[in-house]
Amino acid sequence: GAGVSQTPSNKVTEKGKYVELRCDPISGHTALYWYRQSLGQGPEFLIYFQGTGAADDSGLPNDRFFAVRPEGSVSTLKIQRTERGDSAVYLCASSRGSGNDNEQFFGPGTRLTVL
Amino acid sequence: SQKIEQNSEALNIQEGKTATLTCNYTNYSPAYLQWYRQDPGRGPVFLLLIRENEKEKRKERLKVTFDTTLKQSLFHITASQPADSATYLCALGRGGGSQGNLIFGKGTKLSVKP
After folding, report:
1. A43 chain-B contacts, CB cut-off 8 A
2. Cys staple from A24: which of A5, A39, B56, B78, with CB 3.0 to 4.6 Å?
C-alpha cells in the first residue's frame, strides 16, 4: 500500500504570500500530525488531528499557521503572510490509532523556501 | 524548560563494531520513547518504541534501553554496516492528554566506514 504522500515536494514563495501544503495519510489512519524541521534540527511538533478535529494545536507558532482535515483524511497546512523564518521542511505523519505510543509513519516532506 | 539531548551530532565507527547513541532528557517524565532513522531528503522511519516500565527492547541488530532514573535512553546497533549510516532521532511522548505530541531530539548522524 501507499505511504504518506505530501505535495508539493518543493515550494518557493515570496515573503508575504500565502501557501498551502497538502498531506495524504495512509488509508485508515485516524491520527495525523504536522511537524516542521529546520536544517540540523529534529522535527518540531505543530499540530495533531484525531479524525477531523485538531486534538492538539499547541505547536503552531502563531496565528499565521492553520491546518484543516475536513473529512478525516487529507490535511492541508496553511501559512498566511509567509516570513523568511518559515523556511523549513514541513513533515506530515499518520498513525493507526489515537494512542500516542503508536508508530508514526512520515511522508517525505515539503521543502518550503520563503525568499 | 524541557530539554532533549542526543550525545553528539556525529558518530563515526568502523563496520562490524557496535554503535551506541545516547538520548538524555531533563524536566520531563515521558511515558515512552521512540527511536527513528532519517536518511537525507526523507522523512523519519520508526525503529523501536520502549515504555517507561520497560528496561530494554530488542529488534534484530537493534537494542534500546530506557533508564527513567538517569533520564536516559541508549540505542545500540550491533555488527554495524555501511547501510546503517543515517541520522538517528529519539522522540519522547508524554502519553495521556498530550496524545500525538512527540518531542524530538536533534539527532545523531552515524557514519559506518567499511
Report:
1. 44, 89, 102, 104
2. A5
